[in-house]
Structures are given as structure tokens and as C-alpha cells.
């Protein structure tokens, strides 16, 4: 694989991540602002970790879908499910 192709794929995946992060940033910030100081290293910490895992899963799903498009595959990656905690 040429360096140019790898770089453009890297940029597309980075864009997928940043788009997903932008959509989730307000909810994450509001959640943190509304959390009690005593909960930051407990309940809030685990909810934030789950949110970041979902962000990674969205990025992975988007990257898989882009690769499937390149290969002409009709299948779309199924939605990623991370943990069993409620979304922020």
C-alpha cells in the first residue's frame, strides 16, 4: 500500500472520529458539569469511559463501512454495542 493511500485513509478515519466526537462532546460536557464532585471518580468515571468506548466503536463502524464500500460489499457493519450502561 502506498504512503499516499495510507495517509488518505488515516485522514478519513480521523474525520470519522472527529465527526462522532463533535456530536457527543456537548452531551459529555453537560454530563460532567452536572456530576457531583464526589461522583467524578466513581459513577461519572465509568459513564465517561462508556461514552469514549462508544465513540471508538462509532469510528470503527464507520471505518469498516468505508472499507466495505471500497470493496463493493453490500453489507454494512452492524451498530456497535458497548457495555450495558445507559448512554450519556
Describe the protein in words.
The chain has one domain. It is 67% helix and 0% strand. It has 2 helices and no strands. It is elongated. The termini are far apart.
Key traits:
single chain, 88 residues, mainly alpha, 2 helices, 0% strand, elongated
In short:
With 88 residues, the chain is mainly α.
Based on CA atoms alone, the radius of gyration comes out at 16 Å
Give the proportion of residues in helices: 55-70%
Which regions have little confidence, pLDDT < 50, spanning 5+ residues? none
Number of strands: 0
Layout: helices, strands, pairs:
Blueprint: H1 3-33, H2 43-70
Helix pairs in contact: 1-2
